[in-house]
Write a sequence for this structure.
């Protein structure tokens, strides 16, 4: 049995930063994640994706951000249970929580923090006949290694941040990048939309709007996509890779059975300290919801900071919190 002050479910960026904020308050943390390595989606799905909205860092690759977070929390010596899914949560007689994984590992703490990102997730696949026969044979739902596409022809479909960001990033790597979107308006950040438009005007990206991929061509290996364009009919585009980026389909899994208030597959919280309806359980990062919620990493960092101030009172009911700026107190190991 593993005993600690805070059990953190989810070892993504928000969960990792929670260790730092808790460590400043002398609280011990143990993280549980179904993935085999810490970092969440940043490590497993898009380690080479550039991130632009971390304060003070103009651009950093997702995988590098994970490594920086791990280095930042190293002085606080957190525990990790990786490759195991959180299954059962119980309240003990002493008011602490007992959390058991699918492999039977037991964790006990007075505070549980759910930082599971989107929960269990899988890519949203476009409704294209026989698309599964081309998976890993030219169809990729996730970009893990951009070098795979060097000097290759790539077709990207989607209108959100992932589609825009990867179109921009791969324009310097691939032989050609075609970005297809079923509308003329994009859902991504205005700055990314502007960059895509500039690259389109300069010939760095071929932008095709009011269109969608409706079929795939190839004999065992993808060699083309069938594009249906409004008012122009269907036409075939030769390509080496088709990357549909329509987001992830989230599923809370066992967490959804713990009696938490759920809205649209997200956990409702009080923005005072991101507590849930169950005292002692908090939810931070993409897995929570509240009026005005933004699913940004930096927002998760903010939520983790306020949550730790509240958690301290549950972990140390007889102590008075004394929080000073890290510029005054310093951080162990630095």
């Amino acid at each position: 049995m593993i005993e600690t002050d805070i059990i953190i479910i989810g070892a993504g960026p928000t969960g990792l930063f929670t260790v730092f904020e808790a460590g400043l308050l002398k609280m011990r943390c143990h993280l549980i994640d179904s993935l085999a390595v810490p970092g969440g989606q940043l490590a497993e799905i898009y380690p080479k994706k550039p991130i632009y909205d971390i304060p003070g860092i103009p651009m950093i690759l997702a995988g590098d951000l994970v490594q920086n977070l791990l280095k930042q929390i190293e002085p606080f010596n957190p525990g990790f249970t990786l490759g195991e899914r959180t299954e059962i949560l119980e309240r003990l007689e002493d008011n602490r929580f007992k959390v058991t994984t699918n492999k039977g590992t037991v964790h006990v703490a007075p505070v549980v923090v759910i930082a599971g990102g989107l929960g269990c997730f899988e890519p949203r696949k476009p409704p294209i006949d026989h698309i599964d026969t081309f998976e890993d044979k030219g169809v990729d739902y996730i970009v893990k290694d951009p070098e795979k596409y060097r000097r290759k022809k790539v077709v990207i479909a989607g209108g959100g941040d992932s589609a825009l960001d990867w179109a921009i990033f791969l324009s310097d790597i691939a032989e050609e990048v075609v970005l297809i979107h079923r509308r003329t308006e994009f859902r991504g950040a205005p700055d990314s939309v502007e960059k895509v438009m500039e690259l389109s005007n300069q010939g760095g990206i071929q932008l095709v709007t009011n269109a969608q991929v409706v079929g795939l061509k190839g004999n065992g290996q993808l060699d083309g996509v069938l594009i249906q364009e409004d008012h122009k009919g269907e036409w075939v585009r030769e390509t080496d890779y088709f990357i549909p980026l329509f987001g992830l389909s989230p599923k809370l899994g066992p967490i959804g059975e713990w009696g938490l208030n759920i809205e649209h597959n997200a956990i409702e919280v009080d923005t005072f300290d991101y507590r849930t309806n169950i005292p002692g359980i908090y939810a931070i990062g993409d897995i929570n919801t509240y009026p005005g919620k933004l699913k940004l990493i930096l927002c998760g960092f903010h939520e983790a900071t306020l949550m730790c101030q509240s958690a301290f009172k549950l972990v140390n009911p007889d102590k008075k919190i004394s929080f000073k700026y890290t510029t005054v107190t310093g951080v162990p190991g630095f």
Remarks:
- The mean pLDDT is 90.
